[in-house]
């Protein structure tokens, strides 16, 4: 059963939302993914958000651009954590989306990651789930160790070949 819902307002958001999905997949966390416009199909959106708990979801990752209502509306209807991903837009570079998501009214929190921060949204969802799941916690620790090892290898290579050769890769 899916533990994380990934929802986006448009298929143009897919490259960023896929980053969240990729992280969850790597960590062995089941998820569902869909496209729903809170503005263009509110009836379908309400059905999705109100039914999420019954489908076993523990966290929703919602990405949206411009007015960015999707994360906040999910938080208004879904009783568990919602993570908002503000999408970079051509109009204002995503700042409009960021402000929309972080300026939620008192009582309707949305955890918010960086503009186009799909990977961090996936990791944050995993960390939320890890508070009550030792297996996910173990996989997160392994993931962190792998990231550390990658940085160490890069530093070793830089020391070995110098910055000019390193930049040629």
From TrEMBL:
The encoding gene: purE
Enzyme Commission code(s) on record: 5.4.99.18
Keywords carried by this UniProt record: Isomerase, Lyase, Purine biosynthesis
Protein name in UniProt: N5-carboxyaminoimidazole ribonucleotide mutase
Catalysed reactions, as listed in the record: 5-carboxyamino-1-(5-phospho-D-ribosyl)imidazole + H(+) = 5-amino-1-(5-phospho-D-ribosyl)imidazole-4-carboxylate
InterPro entries attached to this UniProt entry: PurE_ClassI (IPR033747), PurE_dom (IPR000031), PurE_prokaryotes (IPR024694)
Enzyme class (EC, first level): isomerase
HAMAP family: PurE_classI (MF_01929)
Taxonomy, superkingdom: Bacteria
Residues bound to substrate: 10, 13, 40
Molecular function as annotated in GO: 5-(carboxyamino)imidazole ribonucleotide mutase activity; lyase activity
Record Pfam families: AIRC (PF00731)
Listed NCBIfam families: purE
Functional description taken from the UniProt entry: Catalyzes the conversion of N5-carboxyaminoimidazole ribonucleotide (N5-CAIR) to 4-carboxy-5-aminoimidazole ribonucleotide (CAIR).
Keyword Repressor belongs to the record: no
